[in-house]
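call fold(seq) -> tokens
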Amino acid sequence: MLQMRETHRRHHQLRLLILGLLWLLLPTTFAVSASASHHVLVGLHKPPYINMTTSNGYEVELLQAIIARMGATAELTHVPNRRLASLISASNFDIATLQPFDANDNSLYYSCPYIRYENVAVVRADRDLHLDNLSDLADLRVQAFQTAERVLGETYRAMIGRMAEYSETVNQSTQVQMLLLDRVDSIVLDKNILHFHYSQLLDPPPLRSIPISHVLYRAAFKDPSLAEDFDRAQQEFWKSEEFIALQETYFGEVNQALEAYCHD
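ret:
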């Protein structure tokens, strides 16, 4: 009987020891889980970069792949482009995407460029419109993407005052439609976005375009160590076959080589 009681006592002590160890481990487990996701601010529906209908797109999958290499998952919140920078400064989000570098902003830390947009001005080729350079947009009705005035440079900003009409839109899916319906004379947008929407049309009229500028966009962070981790992860991703395949899937070509801009 005494031996049985002693055995029960030891089993009870062992159970208490195991429960105590598990209890000590719980805070660590919770802390790891809590740090295993990064809250990312991204733009609105903008295929082929962001497709909110299917929850994919080049930029969505690019960010997910980079953050996966940081040992975390990406929790994406979609907001208009012009709200991205202000929201990260006034909220608990970790990353704001699609940011031009701002050397005067000491509150945020920037990654190397993670994406490049090749912006073009476009007119219908079957209309009697001359388009050889940016100055030919004078006296035309132009619709550009949201934030174009801010990111396309001083020459572009100066041209806006010479245009017959000028507007910017967050809904880029309508830009090609506006052009084809003659509601505007020219649209300004990224060439990959143009090709995506143009390719959806049946027997569309020919277009003529000129390059305006490429814009390098970075991710912005409040935590400098997170920015460094992001850069290490994306430079690793650039060397992978997955990076090439992602561009070919969404753009039909490889046009996102960014190593040369990493220290701009």
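The longest strand covers residues 207-221.
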